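From the methods appendix. Each design record in this collection lists the tokenized structure first, followed by the designed amino acid sequence. Records were kept in a plain field format so they could be parsed without special tools. The example shown here is representative of the layout used throughout.

RECORD:
FOLD TOKENS (311 positions):
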């Protein structure tokens, strides 16, 4: 009997401690109600409550969480049914609002996401839907932000995972894609051939231009060389004439300094003619100036006389 009483006391103590002491992990928070009314929040760490009077209504995880939205079939503006998978990342920022603002905020987020998605896709055609994932995600997030602000939930990100058009549309899109790729390949080949022809023509043009410029440069240099050679030759001839003139001038100067005037030179010339006249020629023509000179000297008769005697 005594042991039973001790056991009951220990049980009561354990229950009392369990109802009084609450340990909350990091990034979690508890909502405490006192007599059925919100009282306070339990912060991470050790918390003490008044048993029976205080009760923990719920705990919230304050980390960013994700909620998968089941695949939804929606109709585009051009009446094509597509199936869209989305995922939503959210965070509880107001534990009190998340507890009392809505009964299940995850369910509410999914429903609002689905309704918003139908509205957005209904305004877009199929091609816009397939290429507008980023816009669709942004529009859904803005709509969720407006609705969840009162729920103490903040939408961090909305991602459209997949957009699946009907099978026949997919086959048509595959054929269109193959046709587009074939078209681009043909266009690229034609463009490459065009570029090849242009580059070859440019290369041929540049080659001809360079060859013409080379021939022109060669002809210019040849003409320049010929001109310089002619100038040098003329310069050489002028210097030679100048040297001969200088030599003649010097010779005349020397003769003049030696006292050899014109009469003496005429006599010497006549003496040379005398030697010539001793040859086979029987006639000698004398310059008039020489005759006058020798006549004044009275020597010409003696010269001819001596010549006849020698014969």
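DESIGN:
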């Amino acid at each position: 009997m005594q042991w039973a009483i001790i056991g009951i006391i220990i049980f009561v103590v354990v229950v009392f401690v369990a109802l009084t002491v609450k340990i909350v992990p990091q990034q979690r928070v508890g909502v405490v109600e006192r007599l059925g009314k919100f009282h306070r929040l339990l912060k991470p760490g050790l918390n003490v409550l008044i048993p029976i009077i205080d009760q923990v209504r719920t705990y919230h995880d304050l980390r960013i969480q994700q909620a998968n939205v089941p695949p939804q079939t929606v109709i585009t503006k051009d009446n094509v049914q597509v199936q869209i998978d989305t995922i939503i990342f959210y965070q509880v920022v107001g534990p009190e609002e998340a507890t009392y603002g809505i009964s299940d905020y995850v369910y509410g987020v999914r429903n609002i996401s689905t309704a918003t998605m139908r509205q957005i896709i209904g305004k877009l055609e199929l091609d816009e839907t397939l290429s507008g994932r980023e816009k669709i995600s942004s529009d859904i997030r803005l709509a969720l932000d407006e609705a969840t602000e009162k729920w103490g939930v903040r939408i961090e990100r909305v991602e459209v995972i997949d957009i699946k058009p009907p099978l026949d549309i997919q086959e048509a899109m595959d054929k269109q894609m193959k046709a587009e790729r074939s078209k681009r390949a043909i266009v690229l080949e034609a463009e490459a051939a065009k570029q090849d022809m242009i580059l070859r023509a440019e290369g041929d043009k540049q080659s001809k231009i360079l060859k013409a410029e080379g021939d022109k440069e060669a002809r210019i240099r040849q003409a320049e060389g010929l001109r310089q050679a002619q100038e040098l030759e003329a310069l050489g001839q002028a210097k030679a004439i100048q040297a001969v003139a200088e030599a003649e001038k010097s010779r005349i100067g020397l003769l003049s300094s030696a006292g050899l005037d014109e009469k003496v030179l005429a006599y010497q010339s006549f003496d040379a003619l005398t030697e010539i006249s001793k040859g086979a020629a029987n006639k000698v023509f004398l310059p008039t100036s020489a005759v006058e000179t020798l006549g004044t000297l009275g020597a010409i008769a003696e010269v001819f006389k001596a010549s006849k005697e020698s014969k």
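APPENDIX NOTE: The chain has three domains: 1-60, 63-165, 167-226.
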